[in-house]
Amino acid sequence: MRKYIFLAMMTVIAAMPDFAAAQTKGGNGGPVVKSQGHPIEFVRKGTDIVFYVGDDDGSPLSTKDMRGRATIQDGGKTVTVPLTPASPNMMSGKVQTELSPKAIVVFSASLHGHSLTAKYTVE
Q1: How far out from the chain centre does Cα 11 lie?
Q2: From CA 81, how far away is CA 10, in angstroms rounded?
Q3: pLDDT single digits (tens) 8-56
């Protein structure tokens, strides 16, 4: 049994660098995570949070009819921030206070029955 637990732990540890590599920097300076082939970049400016959504070919994806939210865990509290579409490919919202390092931000959105989810750790 211990042998299997050790193997499982080693698998998780070995996968960690791959996950970190998946969060590359985007054109706006934020980390990029792919969800169902769509690159989603997270950028924060003070209390404003912005997600830049790309199509599966990397081009900007129109967010005109997109609905979304950001769920944020910061300092032991969880808040949900509604996101508003902005042209050309942004979903934006406002938090009450600036996010602290190590806060977890989860982007969730849907467009024409297509769901996107991306998880970020604030640096």
Answers
A1: 24
A2: 36
A3: 444 444 444 434 334 689 999 999 999 999 999 999 999 999 999 999 8
Beta-bridged to residue 40, according to DSSP, are 33, 53
Tokens of 47: 């209390």
Nearest one of 39, 34, 5 to 18, comparing CA atoms: 34
- Give me the residue spans of the domains in the chain: 24-121
The domain at 24-121 falls in which architecture? Sandwich (2.60)
**Which residue, among 51, 53, 85, 55, has the nearest Cα to 71 in the 3D structure?**
51
Confidence label for 78 from pLDDT (cuts 50, 70 and 90):
very high
CA angle 13, 44, 116 (to 5 degrees): 60
Measured CA to CA, the distance from residue 77 to residue 89 in angstroms comes to 29
What percent of the residues of the chain are helix, what percent strand, and what percent coil, each to the nearest 5?
A: 15, 50, 35
Average pLDDT, the chain: 86
Strand, helix or coil for residue 18: helix
